[in-house]
Design goal:
6 helices; alpha/beta; Uracil-DNA Glycosylase, subunit E
Amino acid sequence: MAREKVRRYRDEEYWGKPIPGFGDPEARLLVVGLAPAAHGGNRTGRIFTGDRSGDFLYRALYRAGFANQPLSRHRDDGLVLRDCYITAAVRCAPPDNKPSLIELSTCRPYLIEEIRQLSHLRVVVTLGHIAFGAFLKAWGDVGRSVPSPRPFFAHGAKNILADGVVLLASYHPSQQNTQTGRLTSVMFQQVFTAARRLLAEPRAQKEARPRMV
């Protein structure tokens, strides 16, 4: 994909390699996306950077106080995340934006290690059904307990995991969702407003049944 450029970026040098996570290593909020966009992160070298999904995400993070600016155009644009770390279930841009089970399995060790390293983790926001499942799999592989019955995906669903970590689910801010109205800016902002509110509260002490935020 880094070789088959679209016309508007034909003169740019694409990153074209696996994308690392990005943000505050002391973060209490973890955001898990799907994969780098073919002409977004795959081009710029930073997750959710240089595409419409990133515009949607960083605007919401900025409004909730997790970012110093509402846009992310390139790796050196001055964006700083505050108390937030962003990663993805898959580290390379998958064909048709649909990662295979092999790709998910190959990339899972990186997500596992990031969960281990984020020692202050309090809230996780997963963007889309695939990211939701990938996070829960990695969470279990870290050795943390997953509630039973297993959490279900629904936009706005809230589940309390081991050690009081709260899992919030959101639709992915893809153009397929945002341009059709399935995910509005208000709906998306509510998720990060809920994350901010949860970080201001005492840590939950036990697992609970899911509810909508």
